[in-house]
Write a structure and sequence with these properties.
- The chain is of the alpha/beta class and 295 residues long.
- The chain has a single domain, classed as TIM Barrel (Alpha-Beta Barrel).
- It contains twelve helices and nine strands.
- Strands 4-5-6-7-8-9 form a six-stranded parallel beta sheet.
- Helix 3 links the parallel strand 2 and strand 3.
- Helix 7 packs across helix 8 and helix 8 runs parallel beside helix 9.
- The longest helix has 15 residues.
Length: 295
């Protein structure tokens, strides 16, 4: 076993997109039934399966019926309008169906629409998307205070023992969620890929979120070709605070290696960028386990 294999052992990927996401023409090279056995052989502990479009709570049980694996496969719901939006009823249904993670809106978030995130991509994917009622959900008022709906979402996630990811909302909204979560005793919030261009969170805000108890996610795509160098990203993560950082793949692109290979590559790049083996284990194994409520 090489060092890079050791880095992957026991890791949990909290952000892995399902094989069939936007189009059958863009399916990944390997479906879940093919890469899960590889993940088990490589020592991965668990994966959260996500979709921007449809909840994965209905499909994960059937995947697990189709493949024998010791890798934990958890399902999720993204609170986009097609899934019912940011409704406490949707959160309750997710829990009752065995889901473990709630994501705030991605392409239905006002921040995503204004900053041309995935809502912009959908316009080029579906010719009729422009006619879709995409409300642009927002969770703070003009003073930056979390709206009552935001607090209700936290309350529901806490009541049903769910994890809450911030999706594509603005960094200001994520910070408001972090403040409210701290006040409400909810410690299972993680801020999704805040260093991406369509969120663009400043480091001082992320450091503050970490101090409040929120986890801050870093994803492989931040080190994709033409983006950040690994030493630069590592320095940012150390500024935020390694004890509250989570490393995920945000596995999405059909050209990418399968999820365990992509995570192995990402962790290796972080190590070569300056994170020690112990720090890699913190961000890839220990911190995700804390978010999921595992030992």
């Amino acid at each position: 076993m090489t060092l890079y294999d050791e880095l992957l052992a026991g890791a949990i990927d909290l952000h892995c997109h399902i094989d069939l996401e936007f189009s059958g023409k863009e399916r990944k090279r390997e479906p879940e039934t093919q890469w899960l056995p590889k993940a088990e052989a490589m020592g991965l502990r668990g994966v959260v399966l996500k979709s921007h479009w449809w909840p994965t709570v209905n499909v994960v049980p059937y995947i697990l019926d189709s493949v024998k694996t010791s890798v934990s496969l958890w399902s999720s719901v993204v609170l986009n309008s097609c899934a019912g939006g940011p409704s406490p009823c949707v959160i309750e249904a997710c829990a009752e169906l065995g889901g473990k993670v709630i994501f705030l809106p991605t392409w239905s978030a006002r921040n995503d629409i204004e900053r041309k995130g995935f809502s912009h991509r959908l316009r080029s994917t579906y010719e009729r998307f422009g006619k879709f009622d995409n409300p642009g959900f927002v969770f703070i008022d003009d003073k930056g205070q979390l709206l009552p709906l935001g607090r209700e979402i936290i309350e529901c996630c806490k009541a049903y023992d769910l994890v809450l990811g911030t999706g594509h909302v603005s960094w200001q909204e994520s910070l408001a969620f972090a403040e409210a979560a701290r006040d409400m005793g909810f410690n299972r919030l993680f801020i999704n890929h805040p260093l991406t261009s369509f969120i663009g969170a400043p480091l001082d805000a992320l450091k503050r979120a970490a101090e409040l108890g929120a986890f801050v996610e870093t994803c492989w795509n931040q080190l994709a070709p033409g983006r950040m160098d690994s030493p630069e990203l590592v320095q940012k993560l150390k500024t935020i605070g390694i004890k509250q950082v989570i490393a995920s793949t945000d596995y999405f692109r059909p050209y990418s290696p399968n999820p365990p290979e992509l995570l192995r590559m990402f962790l290796g790049m972080l190590h070569e960028g300056g994170l020690s083996k112990e720090e890699i284990k913190q961000v890839a194994c220990a911190n995700p386990a804390r978010v999921m409520g595992l030992e």
